[in-house]
Write a structure and sequence with these properties.
The complex is a heterodimer of chains A (about 260) and B (about 200). Chain A is mainly α and about 260 residues long. Chain A is built from ten helices and no strands. The longest helix of chain A has about 35 residues, at about 205-240. Chain A is elongated. Helix content of chain B is about 85%, strand content about 0%. The radius of gyration of chain B is 21 Å and the shape is elongated. Classes of the chains: A mainly alpha (about 260), B mainly alpha (about 200).
């Protein structure tokens, strides 16, 4: 088994990934709790669905806003993961672009369909069927559209498992878990078929189990990025201070420009 | 001499410990998570059966237990062939290993063909994923398992090419063992699914 040793990453990039990943999990988790969507309203009748949108409106609005803010963090976190993947020889750059592209779609889904929930909370005087439609559209998209998340995981797996470097972007087991996450996401394909049972968007399998697998992937990658960040900081503290000599400062500037233009 | 043997002992012990995990260690993350997901599904099926015993009994009456048993035997034979391939690779008989893997892949193909017949029979009776809880679980869970069979056959096919070349890559032997472990997992899952859908009443 290859011993995992993190390749060099600037500490600022490491911090960017760790901060955005932490914000992603915190805001989405807090948002789900405040909006009382653990689990979300299912594919119920119009009157039952409308009742959810007529109680504790302001707290739920705040919850949905936090979910959207957390969803926006898919972008910087996806960029931080892509930054690791681009170092992989051969497939790295294409995998990084694909992973980041999928993260953009994930963030867009959160923004577009989160707004639909906010529309439902904005107007308490709509017909019940309108709440039902908005609820169906939102949750079918958030839970049922598994493709962007699966694509992120699959491209990560592709890059990690194809990484020949002695200092790989991520440990190989992360690649295998990513493959498992991509494969497990296929359960989302069953959601459009059911309005009852464990495969509906708020069901035991489609929401709780698939959700656990999905967010475990983010936690695993966040922990790996945090390890890289710690490694980068440790490297920085063992190096001599940059401002000691004018010569060193000039060398740092040239290195920084080269890094930026690469 | 005494000094030499006391120095050699600590180096041998870790090597033996490292051999305990067949295949690449990371693959076990994949296999164990997959098995955990299916175990959860088994639990949900058993829980659902408790409240829908009549529906489950009616569903079982439509299925053919001999066909299910035949498929069980096919997958067990497939696993035996994969074990035979491991033995053959161990003693350097690569052609024999390749033939065994081909036969195991054929077992996967037979399993899929029988499953297609079963699905056709159910559809012929007007039964589909929406009919009731039993058929929802039958099509969803056996469909997911069938997908795993396809993946298993593909993985065996990919590794068969490496076996014929003598597993030249640095990770080839580990990947070969990992592929065989995956195939055994597919077999093991069916050994639980078969009684759940066909026998337990």
């Amino acid at each position: 088994m290859t011993t995992y040793r993190a390749p060099h990453t600037p500490a600022a990039v490491g911090f960017f990934g760790v901060a955005s990943g932490t914000a992603l999990l915190t805001f989405i988790g807090l948002g789900f709790l405040l909006a009382r969507v653990l689990p979300p309203p299912g594919p119920y009748s119009a009157s039952v669905t409308a009742a959810y949108y007529h109680s504790d409106i302001d707290v739920k609005r705040l919850g949905v806003i936090l979910i959207i803010v957390g969803g926006t963090m898919f972008l910087p976190f996806g960029a931080a993961v892509a930054d690791r993947l681009r170092h992989v020889e051969g497939i790295g750059p294409v995998a990084a672009i694909t992973e980041f592209g999928a993260a953009v779609i994930s963030a867009a889904l959160m923004m577009v369909f989160g707004s639909m929930l906010l529309v439902a909370f904005l107007r308490p005087d709509m017909p019940d069927s309108s709440y039902q439609l908005l609820n169906h559209m939102t949750w079918l998209a958030w839970v049922g559209l598994w493709q962007p998340g699966a694509l992120q995981a699959a491209t990560t797996a592709w890059a990690v498992l194809g990484d020949p470097s002695p200092t790989p972007a991520f440990p190989r087991w992360v690649g295998w878990y990513s493959l498992c996450m991509a494969f497990g996401s296929l359960t989302g394909s069953l959601i459009p078929f059911f309005t009852f049972g464990p495969f509906t968007w708020n069901g035991f399998i489609s929401f709780w189990i698939a959700g656990a697998i999905f967010f475990a992937w983010y936690i695993i990658l966040l922990v790996q990025l945090a390890k890289n960040y710690r490694h980068a900081r440790a490297q920085r503290t063992t190096q001599p201070p940059r401002s000691e000599h004018l010569h060193d400062r000039a060398a740092d500037t040239v290195a920084g420009v080269m890094e930026a233009t690469r | 001499m005494i000094t030499q043997s006391s120095q050699a002992a600590p180096t041998i012990a870790p090597q033996r410990a490292a051999k305990r995990v067949p295949g690449e260690p990371g693959v076990w993350v994949f296999i164990l998570v997959e098995m955990a997901i299916f175990t959860t599904l088994f639990g949900v099926i058993v829980w659902s059966r408790a409240g829908n015993s009549r529906i489950f009994a009616e569903g079982q009456a439509v299925l053919s237990p001999p066909l299910g048993l035949f498929n069980t035997i096919v997958l067990i034979v497939g696993s035996v062939l994969v074990v035979n391939a491991i033995t053959a690779v161990g003693i350097g008989q690569l052609q024999r290993a390749s033939r065994s893997l081909t036969a195991a892949m054929a077992c996967g193909g037979i399993f899929a063909a029988v499953k297609a017949v079963e699905y056709h029979n159910a559809l012929h009776h007007g039964l589909f994923i929406h009919t009731n809880a039993y058929w929802m679980f039958f099509f969803a869970v056996t469909g997911a398992h069938l997908l795993h069979v396809f993946v298993g056959v593909s993985v065996l096919g990919l590794i068969r090419g490496r076996v014929r070349c003598g597993l030249p890559g640095p990770r080839d032997r580990q990947l070969f063992m990992s592929a065989t472990c995956y195939w055994h997992m597919v077999d093991l899952l069916w050994l639980v699914l078969f009684p759940l859908f066909y026998l337990v009443n």
